[in-house]
Design goal:
By secondary structure, the chain is mostly helical. It contains 2 helices and no strands.
Length: about 100
């Protein structure tokens, strides 16, 4: 008895095999679809995280730049006050 003759003598077995194969293929397709969707979600999350990090870096750099410029401004003001105080002292000494 060959393999083909089993299906001829027992046609319900071919249906059972086809249903089993179809179920396995369907399950594999569903798993593959779920895996692909999960991978797409991971890629999207990575892109969002990178965009967020870049945004945070830009915000951090902007804050650092503002702090640096503020410190420069304060230094200039202090130097200007020191010059003015020195000029007052010189003027006071000349007046005497």
């Amino acid at each position: 008895m060959t393999r083909d003759s089993i299906f001829v003598t027992h046609p319900h077995k071919i249906c059972l095999v086809l249903v089993t194969v179809w179920a396995v293929l369907l399950q594999s397709a569903l798993v593959l679809t779920e895996v692909l969707k999960e991978r797409e979600a991971q890629i999207e999350l990575k892109k969002m995280r990178e965009a967020s990090v870049c945004g945070e870096n830009k915000e951090t750099l902007a804050k650092l730049r503002e702090a640096y410029e503020e410190s420069l401004r304060i230094d200039r003001e202090e130097k200007q006050r020191a010059r003015e105080a020195k000029m007052k002292t010189v003027d006071f000494q000349k007046a005497q």
